[in-house]
Amino acid sequence: MPNSAHKNSISIAVMPGDGIGPEVMKPAIALMDRALERTGGPKLSYEELDAGAECYRRTGTPMSEEVFEKAAAADAILFGAMGLPDVRRPDGIEIAPQLDLRFRLELFAGVRPVRTIPGAPTPLADPRAKNLDFVLIRESTEGLFTSRGKGEVTPDYVRETWEITRAGSERLFDFALQLGRRRKAKGSPGSVACVDKSGVFRAFAFFRQIFFERAKAFPDIDARAFNVDATALDLIRRPWIFDVLVTENQFGDILSDAGAALMGGMGMAPSADIGLTHGLFQPCHGTAPDIVGMGKANPTAMILSAAMMLDWLGETKQLPSCGAAADLLQRAVDAAFAPGDLRPFELGGEAGTQAITDRVATQLEALPLEA
Ligand code: ATP
C-alpha cells in the first residue's frame, strides 16, 4: 500500500526508462513542480528508479525486487517509456516492466483520454474531429495479456489464450460506469460502451453480459455495446460519437494507438493505469529509438500524463490544490498549441522537446489560476 496516509509530503516513484523516456520526463517534472508552486500545492518528493531495457542490459534484470517495492510504496508512479527493440529476453520478448507493474499492482484500468487540443494538427478533416473528447478504458491485468511469456510454442504450433474473470470484469465496468457518470456531471453525454467480439467468442459474450449486469446499477448511464471491428471503423469514420469506451486488454492496446493518432500522434497521447490502491502515469508512446538524443521528442503526452497524476492525487488524497495544478498544466498545454503555429516534429513541424516545453512554461506563468 502507498505510504503517505500519515506523511505530509507526497512521494513519487520516477521511472524515466529508456530511449526518449528520460528526455520527456525532465521537462514534465519541472512544469509539474511549477504548476504546484503556483496553486500552493504540496511539494512532491521524487525518487528516481532504475528499470527498463538498459537496466536489463547492465544488470541482467529489467526491474529488481527492491525497485518494485519502492515503486509500490510510493504514492504514485510517473513512468517514461521502457523497452528497446534490440534488447530482448532469451524467449525473444521485449523488456516491459510496465506490464509487470500493471499485473503486480493490479492496475486494472488503463485510462486513455482521446482529447484533441485545438490548434494542434490532427489527421481528420471533418470539423467534428477537431473537438474530440472521449475516453478509452483498456482492461490491463487480464485478457490476452495473461498469456504473456506463458504461451505454448512448438515448431508447428503456438497457443496463447484469453482469460477474463467475473471479478476483473466487474471492477473494470464499475470503474468505466463511474467515469461515465462523472463526465456526465460535467456535460458529456453519459454513454458508456462495452467493446468486444461477442458474436464470435464466448469469452466476450460473458464479458458483455457482465457489463450489462453492472450497468443496471447506473440507470442514468446510456449503456451500449459495440463490436471491436465496427469500433475501429468508427474511430476513423465518426469518432465524435464516443464518450466512454471500455474493452479487453489487447483490443484496448490496439484501439488506444488509433486514439493517439486521432490526437495527432503518439507524442500527444497521455495515459494512466489505475488500480484500487495504486496509480501509474505514462505517455502512450514507447521509447521511440529512431529519434533518441535528437531533441525531437514531443513532451506533450508526458506533460499531460503528469497532469493526470496531479488530478488523481488531488482526488484520492483530497487535495484541491493538486487538482488545480492539474487543471493549470492542462490549460497551459492547450494555450501553447492554441495559436496553431506549434508543430511538433512528429506532426511534420520543427518544434522539438525544448521549444514545446518553453511554450508550455510561458503559458504556465501567464494563465490565471482559475479557468
Ligand atoms: P511500444 O511498443 O513500446 O509502444 P512502439 O515501437 O510501438 O513502442 P513508439 O516507440 O511509440 O512505438 O514509436 C512509434 C513512432 O512514433 C516512432 O516513429 C517514434 O519516433 C514516434 N514517436 C513516439 N513517441 C514520440 C514522441 N513523444 N515524440 C515524437 N515522436 C514520437
From TrEMBL:
Keywords: Manganese, Metal-binding, NAD, Oxidoreductase
KW Hydrolase (keyword) present: no
Limits of the Isopropylmalate dehydrogenase-like domain: 11-360
Stretches assigned to coiled coil: none
Protein name (Swiss-Prot/TrEMBL): 3-isopropylmalate dehydrogenase
One Pfam family here: Iso_dh
SMART domains on file: Iso_dh
InterPro entries reported in the protein's UniProt record: ICDH/IPMDH, IsoPropMal-DH-like_dom
Top-rank taxon: Bacteria
Cofactor: Mn(2+); Mg(2+)
UniProt source species: Alsobacter soli
